[in-house]
Please model this.
Amino acid sequence: MKNLKTILLGAGIMLALVILYDYYKSYRSEHEELMAQTALIEREINQVRKLIVTEANYAKIYNYQNTKSYGWDYFSSQKKALISSNTSVQIIYDLKELGYEIDATTKTIHITSIPEPEIKVDPDLQFYDLDNGWINTFEAKDFNTIKSKIKKDITAQVATSDLIKNADDRLLTELASIYALSNSMDWKIVYDGSAIESTTEFLK
Model:
């Protein structure tokens, strides 16, 4: 009887050791897989963190006129010019500024910030038919004013063009790789307090 108890006790201890060993192996395997997934996601995000530049050129002709009155309606002086503008425009997303945190315990990627697009407008101006008034002549400040007005005009034109949409599409294409990778490994992405169900939600 004593031998039977010893055998059963030994068997129980062996069974407990086997269970503990299997649990340890399973835990270690899951932990190693989680660490591998975290490293993979970190690498994918770092690949996405780059400069995205969408470019276009706008060509336009402007007529500039400026009339100054010198106290009497019949005494004024007008200056005018014909201006050819070939403007280079860039929409820039600097994804190196993308903010994120990875929580491996909950398998969650927290996107904390997505940089706003920067619009760069650089007009190259050529002046034709520059006509100075009798005493109202062109000065350096006039050329700066003209350039500023043209930049404002082109910026407004860009805001309603497909260029912004094309830049957004390129941004979403980059972020889609993070979204696809996280989905494939049953991770989730949270941005602005909400779980992301599609890449377009990044721009809401």
Residues 11 and 118 are 71 Å apart (CA to CA). The chain has a mean pLDDT of 84.
